[in-house]
Amino acid sequence: MEEHDxxxxxxxxxxxxxxxxxxxxxxxxDSPVPHAVFGVLDAVAGTDAAxxxxxxxxxxxxxxxASRLVAQAVSSGHLERVADQHDGRRAVLxxxxxxxxxxxxxxxxxxxxxxxxxxxxxxxxxxxFAHLLGRFIDALDTPRSIDS
Length: 148
Known about the structure:
Arc Repressor Mutant, subunit A, two-stranded antiparallel ribbon, mainly alpha
């Protein structure tokens, strides 16, 4: 197989389109919080004992930007800072009930949009797509040596 065959190029183009949709918040356009703040909420939901320091790399921003986003989420009532049970000097971030509601509504909206996009697919096609997409993402997350 060629290193950059037509299928690989088509997948890359589709991934760019997905990234662009995510960047402009297309699936979260009805969210009551700004897209960047929603990203913080989503990252906190996917992290145990989230701190500003652990969120910065997850969000792809520097620590001062992550701190500003967290402050915005705290002031809007979607996040709270609580003392770490293992180290009282450290504050961990926790979603508030309002933050949990925002995430649930956004996830419901995303799932509805995805279901609509696959509405004309067979159950087999949907199952196979979910399997292959998961396998693809797992492979992207697997470190590779330069010689691979």
